[in-house]
Amino acid sequence: MTLLKIPKGGAVSTLSPTRVPASGPKSRRRQSAHRGHATAAWLLIAPALIGFLVFAVYPTVRGTYFSFTTYHILSPAEWTGLANFRQMIHDPVFWHSLRATLYFVVLSVTIGILVSLLTAVILHRLTRSTVIRGLVILPFLISGVVAAVIWSWMLDPQLGIVNVAIKAVTGQRVEFLGSSALAIPSVAMISVWKSMGYNAVLIFAGLQTIPGEIYEAARLDGASEVRMFRHITVPLLRPILAMVVILTVISSIQVFDIVQVATKGGPANASNVLQMYIYDTAFSQYNFGYASAMSLALFAMLTAITFIQLRVSRANESDTN
Questions:
Q1: Half-sphere exposure of 232 (CA within 13 A, CB side)
Q2: Residue at 41 is within a domain
């Protein structure tokens, strides 16, 4: 609120009101109540804060320290500086695992986003049934281990239902998980099947924010469904799509459970993704120093990829304004 003050000279000036510090018994009771609220707030967030410090901050700091040491559990960590990172640069298995990981990410993100976007658009345009939406998200509720076991049975070259159907049509069976060429695409398809429902629901929520009047106006102008999808739906969904792509890239780079159960990194290291190599180095070879260095490199790559995606996709901007 602004007050007008007329001085003796007749000039009119505006002055902001001066806040008078509260005092008295009422003010002291209010301050005491605020101190009580602050204490209650700290008590409520304390479990989450302690968990974050113990299970996130401490392992991160400890792992960063181990990445500069030689550490094999039974002997104390010995500081070696950048030796682990020099070994990583000249390690052919590391680069093979990185290529396998990037191949998996490209397949799972590209196919996963296209399938999820198509599913969400069909749900939005053709049906609003909550039952169908619930059925679509069901695969996401299944654990990665269970999904990998089920698909391993279905893709089995002898008894799998998929191979039985393929043999009935072509007369031949396909080694989906036992072939070096098909191992990564097969594992990527399992990942797409599992995450498709969750991504479709996120995109579906974004579709509901687009005003229906825009589609009505485009329809009156004679625009087809394909043209409305290209020039209305996709541009207005850009912030949601950017978020879904970033989340899918991060989860794809961190893939472990599906690969561990379905192929165990085989055949002949064909599906030995980076997470598998880090796990094997740490818990089979007990070389925690080198495994920590690779984990730190993976963290740096994830941070760089996420930053580039945010900049390129302009995820913090909306075209609806």
A1: 21
A2: no
pLDDT at 51: 94
Residue 217, in any domain of the structure: yes
Distance separating alpha carbons of residues 93 and 98, to the nearest angstrom: 8
Amino acid at 103: Y
pLDDT at residue 179, as a whole number? 87
Q: What is the CATH number of the domain that holds 282?
A: 1.10.3720.10
Domain count, the chain: 1
pTM (2 d.p.): 0.79
Q: At what angle do helices 274-283 and 92-126 cross, to 10 degrees?
A: 130
Residue 27 lies in a domain: no
Residue with tokens 């302690």: 50
Instruction: Give the pair of three-digit tokens for residue 163.
Output: 């191979």
pLDDT tens for each residue of 189-211: 999 999 888 888 888 888 888 88
Tell me phi and psi for residue 15, to 5 degrees.
Answer: -130, 140
| Angstrom distance (rounded) from CA 189 to CA 104 | 9
By residue range, what is the domain housing residue 236? 104-315
